[in-house]
Amino acid sequence: MSELETAPTSTDAARPVATADGARPGSQTSGRLRNVHRTQRSWSVLVLLALITIFSVMRPEQFVSWFNAKSIAVDASSYLLIAVGMTFVITIAGIDLSVGSVLVFSGVVSLKVMLAIGGDGPLVLLAGLAAALLSGVAWGLVNGLVTTRGGVSPLITTLGSFAAATGLAYLLAGGQDMHGVPRTLADTLGFGEFLGVPYTVLVALTVAAAGAFVMSQTRFGRYTAAIGSNEEAVRRAAVNVNNHIVKVYVLSGALAGLSGFVSLARFQTTTLNGHQTDMLQAILAVVIGGTSLIGGVGTVLGTVVGVMIPSVLTDGFVILGLEPFWQQVALGAALVIVVMVDQRRRRRDVRT
Which structural domain, as residue segments, surrounds residue 202? Predict the structure, then answer.
């Protein structure tokens, strides 16, 4: 039996802690919170289906095609990698605004390592992957330690990391995009397919499946939900909360690093200016999918649905010929609306 299921005997410490779905066992609101969780995910599926239907009716020849479906999936997969990490971060009631910059920084470091080694063999690609992952882990470790040991709010910590990682990426790249990505990386991970499905999509789905399993079936996932629901109760249950929070930020950083490596393969350049709004896309996907911004409720499967909505919306806007600036307006408005509706519904269900 885990520490979360054996709370200390003192009155204050014996308050029940959240389970993996974010509800406190035995509380009157546990069933309602689970229902809110499921309802949000159901609405996300309906919204996704509605968008697909609308664009299919308006532009059937361009939107309804296997090529366009693959384009949407590849675009969504880039955001899904960082959104999975963001799901864990938001579930502990944190935030990570640095993922886009960490992605770029990791890509720059990865490419510099591969160029320094030279060649185009598997060992070069593995070295680049390791460099990208380690770069992401380093930034995640910084975010976690500053938040827990330094006592700085996650918002300020990751905002600082966002600026610092961006600046360092530009310094390492000499102020302009780097090229020279190994051809093997581009041909396999960038453009390769397995049974018609791009490898980038398969990588993202594998990460999402692993994240969903960890969130719902492991002690790590239970701790993550419990900390977001009632951090003090988890501390009194003899769980090292600070270490767990650091691990969650390290996970987010590692997945941002992996996304940076995938971005190199896909675009064959470091795309220094292409990821400023990635954290907005990730947060939007996570919240739309049913994860609560106040913590305690997290769903990776919901995030998979949530990450598809802005990708379908963006693709539909492009097909309709709308100005690209309207895409950002729509995404920003959608984030505000979703959070507003989510918070009101949760407050109403808890009161009743």
Answer: 72-339
